[in-house]
């Protein structure tokens, strides 16, 4: 699968207890509180020792700041309070459970997912541009940095920073390609302008501030934002003269990342139009996803957990692992594989979507991850509310807000059926089962003994086995998940769309009324639009997915629903890679063979040569089938309704997911577009191109041979652009794509500068603005 050898093992979740993982013992709650008070207790003891006292209290505290970066197209205010049914992600649910008590030093901040309204930064509408290209992602990360300054401002002066001040600073921190390298300087300047006026207050403020403790969470692109946030935060640290390491502090106050909780990091989600190409990292995610090394930032990040989806495989959702390119993980981090696709881990699916979780949100597979993420964060000292029954009397008296809100507690509900099926799924991992029942207070994940990419490949075989029966053989049509899936008819769609359009119009009218008012910025916060109407076509998605899978499984040519599928228009933004043909064919054959083997374990033939199958008699295997039937979603089937009326062009169900490991990948890929420029052809500013591929499936031999496997077509002229001499050398498939991209990015920047300079010289010559030195002067 990957060129990386001897990679460290990935982790898998422990058995899930019947009672879940919310704390059930007041002693555990006290331990969590003690971790939050550790600096205060240490300071008290040291102060009393100097004074010769015993037991005296002291007026000091640490700040606890929790930041929640939500995933693409996820928006807590809408998903929780307006959507029907509500479907907040696990990031939003954990935000609801987080303690907020600024006067006691507890702060929480929520950052909506890209592609959704974020009025505080001036983004008012759901946006397909943000959905496709992570538009305004940089602003969201900078907003997180600004909230750290905001919390310090309130703590030291009792005043929050004004919305106008925050928005003004946000603008000064913004960058555009290719000048993203200037972002470090602008961020440092903006943060310094907010922090330096507070410096004098640090020594005099009461209670005394001892430390800044951060708890950072993120899902999908929000996880990528969280990782970039960590990188950019580290760039704010100064290195004292003669010191080996940066001082991990702001305003002289020690700053630590107590917990970093990541759910299925995706740093690049591109348009389906770009398939069979895999998108690379966007500008703000380029070079920022690697977790800090312990040798440079010792004991800065205390705990990191990255929960990843075992069954996601969309081309446009490549995973960014936290494993380093050398195959090792940071000592403070664990990567844990969970069943399901992207949002089965991060949450956000409504109950009943695609006929899954028909019994309510308690049957959503993401509830397992929610509990495990809560438990890991709680064990690391995260300030999270708890059920009233386990809240110790002492804490109830001094901090009654630690009692979990009843509505939030309902968001943590799970069905016993879900637990049984999840625990049965663990039988597919090849572990030696524990002989003792699971401990709800000790949900330690377990080493699998295999690296991440191998674990994901093994899990895809199980899901492919299920698909062979349900999709290729057509038995889905007789299953409840299809029969009870929602399918809106034309009349329902027309009425629902009209209602949604009216809601959007009302929001925009409110926005117009707010313009020019004295408190315009505050008024605009309440004028975010709902998302555009999207008809529910679950049965259609399942049927079309079945047809696609059957065609691929049987080796039949599959027609796209749009003729445009044969020539792919590549939006020249950021980075695009081409998958290697030979590797794709090998993947297809391997996944098919392994899937057939697993199908024989999950299903048994009803009679000799009957070609009719039923679910295995094994209770565990039957429970695994039930999990795939009623819990695991089909993210590729949903990924259908784009402008080309087609699912992922050239994508299919017989591909392993692309995984990035720092500068390495698990697939050999070719850099087609780097930093928004086509690699290997002469640079033309403003050029627009299409990529025509020589595919192994459906198109082989139709376009003639090409040494790099594709053609670049000038959209304006329609002509094929010739590759530069030697281009084939830099366009060879490679696992070490990071090094190639870095080299090409620098070359493109230099070429652009030279081209701009030449264009300017030519212009000055034509207009007489440039007098060239004459080589020979005749006297």
Secondary structure tally: strands: 22
Helicity, as a percent range: 25-40%
Beta-strand fraction estimate: 5-15%
Number of helical segments with 4 or more residues: 24
Largest sheet: 7 strands, mixed
The assigned structural class equals: alpha/beta
Unreliable stretches (pLDDT < 50, length at least 5) are: 269-279, 560-574, 640-645, 698-706, 774-779
Task: Give average pLDDT, whole number.
Answer: 84
How far apart lie the N and C ends? 74 Å
Computed Rg: 28 Å
Shape: globular
Give a brief description.
Keywords: Membrane, Transmembrane, Transmembrane helix. With 779 residues, the chain is an alpha/beta fold.
List keywords for this structure.
seven-stranded mixed beta sheet; single chain; alpha/beta; Tle1-like_cat; 779 residues; four-stranded antiparallel beta sheet; transmembrane
């Amino acid at each position: 699968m990957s060129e990386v050898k001897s990679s460290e093992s990935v982790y898998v979740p422990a058995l899930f207890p019947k009672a879940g993982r919310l704390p059930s013992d007041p002693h555990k709650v006290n331990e969590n509180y003690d971790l939050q008070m550790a600096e205060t207790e240490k300071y008290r003891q040291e102060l009393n020792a100097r004074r010769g006292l015993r037991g005296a209290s002291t007026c000091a505290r640490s700040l606890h700041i929790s930041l929640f970066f939500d995933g693409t197209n996820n928006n807590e205010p809408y998903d929780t309070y307006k959507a029907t049914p509500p479907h907040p992600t696990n990031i939003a649910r954990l935000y609801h459970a987080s303690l907020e008590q600024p006067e006691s030093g507890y702060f929480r901040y929520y950052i909506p997912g890209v592609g959704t309204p974020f009025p505080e930064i001036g983004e008012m509408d759901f946006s397909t541009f943000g959905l496709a290209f992570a538009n305004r992602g940089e602003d969201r990360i900078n907003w997180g940095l600004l909230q750290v300054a905001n919390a310090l401002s309130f703590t030291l002066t009792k005043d929050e920073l004004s919305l106008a001040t925050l928005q003004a600073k946000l603008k000064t921190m913004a960058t555009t390609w290719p000048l993203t390298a200037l972002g470090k300087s602008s961020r440092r300047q903006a943060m310094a302008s907010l922090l330096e006026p507070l410096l004098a207050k640090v020594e005099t403020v009461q209670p005394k501030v001892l430390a800044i403790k951060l708890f950072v969470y993120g899902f999908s692109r929000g996880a990528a934002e969280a990782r970039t946030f960590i990188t950019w935060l580290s760039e704010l640290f100064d290195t004292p003269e003669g010191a080996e390491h940066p001082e991990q502090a702001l305003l002289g106050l020690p700053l630590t990342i107590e917990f970093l909780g990541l759910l299925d990091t995706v740093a690049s989600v591109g348009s389906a139009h770009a398939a069979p190409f895999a998108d690379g990292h966007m500008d703000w995610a380029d070079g920022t996803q690697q977790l800090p090394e312990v040798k440079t930032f010792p004991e800065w990040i205390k705990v990191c957990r990255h929960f990843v989806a075992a069954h996601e495989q969309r081309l446009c959702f490549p995973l960014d692992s936290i494993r380093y390119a050398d195959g090792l993980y940071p000592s403070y981090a664990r990567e844990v594989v969970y069943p399901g696709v992207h949002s089965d881990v991060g949450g956000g699916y409504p109950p009943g979507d695609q006929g899954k979780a028909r019994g309510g949100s308690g049957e959503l597979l993401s509830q397992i991850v929610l509990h495990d993420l809560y438990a890991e964060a709680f064990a690391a000292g995260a300030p999270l509310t708890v059920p009233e029954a386990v809240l110790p009397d002492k804490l109830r008296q001094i901090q009654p807000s630690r009692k979990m809100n009843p509505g939030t507690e309902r968001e943590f509900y799970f069905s016993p059926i879900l637990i049984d099926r999840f625990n049965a799924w663990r039988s597919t991992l090849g572990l030696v089962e524990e002989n003792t029942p699971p401990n709800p207070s000790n949900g330690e994940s377990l080493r699998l003994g295999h690296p991440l990419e191998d674990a994901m490949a093994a899990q895809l075989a199980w899901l492919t086995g299920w698909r062979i029966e349900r999709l290729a053989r057509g038995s889905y049509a007789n299953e409840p998940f299809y029969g009870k899936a929602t399918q809106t008819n034309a009349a329902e769609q027309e009425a629902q769309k009209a209602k949604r359009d009216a809601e959007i119009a009302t929001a925009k009218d409110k926005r117009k009324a707010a313009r020019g008012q004295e408190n315009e910025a505050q008024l605009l916060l309440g004028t975010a639009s709902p998302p555009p109407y999207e008809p529910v076509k679950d049965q259609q998605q399942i049927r079309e997915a079945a047809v696609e899978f059957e065609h691929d499984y049987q080796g039949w040519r599959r027609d796209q629903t749009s003729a445009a599928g044969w020539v792919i228009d590549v939006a020249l933004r950021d980075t695009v890679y081409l998958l290697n043909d030979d590797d794709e064919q090998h993947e297809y054959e391997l996944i098919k063979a392994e899937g057939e083997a697993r199908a024989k374990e999950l299903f048994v033939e009803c009679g000799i040569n009957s070609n009719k199958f039923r679910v295995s008699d094994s209770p565990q295997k039957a429970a695994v089938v039930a999990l795939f039937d009623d819990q695991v979603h089909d993210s590729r089937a949903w990924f259908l309704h784009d402008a080309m009326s087609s699912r992922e062009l050239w994508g299919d169900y017989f591909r392993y997911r692309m995984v990035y490991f720092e500068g390495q990948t698990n697939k050999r890929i070719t850099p087609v577009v780097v930093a928004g420029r086509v690699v290997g052809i002469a640079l033309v500013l403003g050029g627009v191109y299409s990529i025509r591929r020589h595919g192994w499936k459906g198109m082989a031999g139709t376009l003639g041979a090409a040494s790099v496997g594709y053609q670049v077509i000038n959209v304006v002229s329609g002509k094929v652009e010739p590759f530069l001499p030697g281009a084939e050398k830099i366009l060879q498939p490679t696992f070490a794509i990071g090094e190639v991209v870095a080299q090409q990015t620098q070359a493109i920047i230099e070429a652009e500068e030279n081209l701009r300079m030449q264009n300017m010289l030519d212009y000055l010559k034509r207009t007489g603005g440039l007098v060239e030195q004459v080589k020979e002067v005749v006297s």
